[in-house]
């Protein structure tokens, strides 16, 4: 499968891979923030199977397939290791890269990620199987798809396949999160589809929520954006870009005496 990707910015240093959300593409997920990130690094923005300009193939849509596709793309581009920034479904793909392909990942930025079903608000996905493709006609995701997809008539099939993925969301154990080697920044909207308590739980598993003045800063970070919803996170470029840039350019431990606490 030929995975559509775009390269932006300079060729110096470890590249940053951007992975979009479900039913989205590069434009609707990263159109606002990409120019800011590309000022200081090489950025590789991808579009996953059946999304945007990448055609569909005869296989289900799964986070595991998406992660393997990104690894294959990195192989084709000759990239041994990359930082990864994923939003929503893309954050789950980024997390899968971190747990299943740790040698290919430098740092992770995970926006709106849940590592198990308990992380979502109760009842959030109730009725998702009743979603019809036409319910999303006129949305920014549908309009982007019509502009970019090799087969604009494939929208209905994409929505149908995504409903199967939503009914079988990827799961990680606390032990897998605790063992994640990549320094990780968790990003959440204060009115997100993921509960803030879950983000804090994940932050603790990664070694966060410690008295940093006494112990040193951990390798992980947590950012909760005020007055923000799940779908408006991509519009918060003025907040996110400097935080992400500073996190990715950090060299070595975050501060004097820093340790990776695993609770």
From TrEMBL:
Q: Which InterPro entries match?
A: AB_hydrolase, AB_hydrolase_1, AB_hydrolase_fold
Write out the GO MF terms. Answer: catalytic activity
Which is a Pfam family this sequence falls into?
A: Abhydrolase_6
Which SUPFAM superfamilies did the record assign? alpha/beta-Hydrolases
The record places domain AB hydrolase-1 at: 16-241
Q: Where does the source fall among the domains of life?
A: Bacteria
Name of the protein = Pimeloyl-ACP methyl ester carboxylesterase
Per the UniProt record, the source organism is Micromonospora parathelypteridis
